Amino acid sequence: MKYIRHFHENYQKIKLLGGKGLNLVKLFNERFNVPPGFILTTEAYKDFMNKSEHKEKLSNLISKDIQPKNVLSDSQKIQNLILDSEIPIEIINEIKKAYIKINEHLEGYKRFAVRSSATIEDSQMASFAGQADTYLFRESLEEILFSIKKCWASLYSPRSILYIIQLNKMGKNISLDQVYMAIIVQEMIRSDISGVLFTANVLNNDRDQILINSCWGLGEALANNIVIPDTIILDKNSSQVVRQIIGKKERMAVPDIEHSCTKITKTRQHLRNDLCLTDEQIKNLHRCAVDIESLYEYPQDIEWAIKDDEIFILQTRPITTLN
């Protein structure tokens, strides 16, 4: 296939997979428990843009030096043109084949996350994480195709453009028309517990400690600051708990199956003041943290989920905030 790379192919080129996609492929092939999926490469994005009926308008808008005062208006124009463009049939056909193939290997609950993976994402020098969009609990091929276009369009959201402008002020010299977007389509985990862990303590820059944040349900409640998560600090060498603080978890994110998205609901009373993680789960997360940091030889920011006591690694990226 020209446009699709499955995780198991172990194809590791950031220019085609983007930073997030590259990391998932690497983790998957190092036998970490990564939910299965495939990546629509940056070649699909390039061909989509080049074959768009709005190619000339898009090219003029993207190639110019966007001034901060024009970010909102130019962003809206670019995103509208992308959403109004048709995905070429040859790209759709490959996505359809990959979608059918992954569906054949999944049992029971079949929903997908559609996630962006930019070519400047998740480097040690800069993280594009959080700038582009993610769409959860997509089910049909049509939902996935529309979510792919929305991910492409989100490359030109106001926050993405302003982020690149800020990087350039810091001397990064990144041109908007030289950033490309791959798309990850991955099995959605209906998690009981979600969280992030840092293989260095980002609160005090201690590289001999691991910091874990956790919440009930899906990770959106944590990512969007809807809850105060549990905080656990571990000694990296011994895995012993240095400190743990039970958060305020009055609400949680859960699937909204009817609308193919997530929703916020009240956490059951008896869970609100309980620590999410068991001692055994903490030890297993410690093991994952040490192994992943060893693989990358650099402190990592790791997103994880637990379903039926099974830990899934959803992504990893370098910590960019350490002194």
Describe this structure in words.
The model has no long low-confidence stretch (mean pLDDT 92). The longest helix is centred in the C-terminal third of the chain and has 18 residues. A hairpin with a 5-residue loop joins strand 8 and strand 9. This protein is 35% helix and 25% strand. Strands 9-8-7-6-12-13 form a 6-stranded antiparallel beta sheet. The chain has a 5-stranded antiparallel beta sheet with strand order 1-2-5-3-4. The protein folds into 2 domains: 184 residues, ATP-grasp fold, A domain (Dna Ligase, domain 1); 126 residues, D-amino Acid Aminotransferase, Chain A, domain 1 (2-Layer Sandwich).
- Biggest beta sheet attributes: 6 strands, antiparallel
Which segments are poorly predicted (pLDDT under 50) over 5 or more consecutive residues?
none
In which range does the helix fraction lie? 25-40%
Side-by-side strand order of the widest sheet: 9-8-7-6-12-13
What tags apply to this protein structure?
323 residues; six-stranded antiparallel beta sheet; alpha+beta; D-amino Acid Aminotransferase, Chain A, domain 1; 2 domains
Would you kindly provide a brief summary of this structure?
With 323 residues, this protein is of the alpha+beta class.
Q: How would you summarize the topology of this molecule?
A:
Blueprint: E1 4-6, H1 14-29, E2 37-40, H2 42-50, H3 55-63, H4 71-83, H5 89-105, E3 112-118, E4 134-138, H6 141-154, H7 158-169, E5 181-187, E6 193-198, E7 209-216, H8 220-223, E8 230-235, E9 241-245, E10 251-256, E11 261-266, H9 279-296, E12 300-307, E13 310-318
Antiparallel strand pairs: 1-2, 2-5, 3-4, 3-5, 6-7, 6-12, 7-8, 8-9, 10-11, 12-13
Helix pairs in contact: 3-4, 4-6
